[in-house]
Amino acid sequence: MTTRRHAGHQGTGPGAITPDGCSVELYARLGPQDEPDIIQAAVPERSSILELGSGVGRLTHPLIERGFTVTAVDESPEMLERVRGARTLCSSIEVLQLGERFDVVLLASFLINTSEPAARRRMLRTCRDHVTDDGCVLIQREGADWHTQVPRERVDPSGYTMRIVSEPVGGGVYRARAEYVFPDVTWTQTFRSRPLAKQEFAECLAEAGLAVESYLTADDTWVRARPVS
Fold first, then answer.
1. What residue ranges in the chain does DSSP mark as E strands?
2. Which of 87, 156, 159, 178 is deepest in the core (most CB within 10 A)?
3. Does the pTM exceed 0.85?
């Protein structure tokens, strides 16, 4: 499959780098945080989940361990080689057409905040096309201060330090840089992102035939949406 390079995205560090600047080796080291708990609390037990942008399986694996059936989609074959226990499909989200529908469609990792409006529309259309009429779409979006409370730094208990910087580049778009510093190696990812206020976010969903049902976290970063006619 041919993948396109994402405009304004790049990564540095050892190992394979995906078209959106992610390091395969980095994400193989990163474990989940509270995302599996949030997802489990928001959907019925043993739901079928279509995970869009699964990467190496950082969320896939704990969801499988909790009894969910996961179909993992990613545009990077190097990422998908690390996924275990799930059906895997190598495809960009924007062009995915499985002819199947799932109890849950998962769009995590702030993918909704792409700086490209056309790509966001196609991703949301993919979500709508693949969710059952009584199912839900779980979306992880950037918090209101993600690009303004910078620079910031977080030391993870597992032993690495993550640093974030971000600056506006015009048209509501920001250029952000994440640096992951381990004792033995450093990776960076530079990417472009567009924050979405709640009203604009709801309008984007509505255009795709989805509606916000509820915000799942206090910081409003996780959302459960439902399909509408």
1. 10-12, 48-52, 69-74, 87-90, 102-107, 131-140, 152-155, 161-170, 173-181, 186-193, 210-215, 222-227
2. 178
3. yes
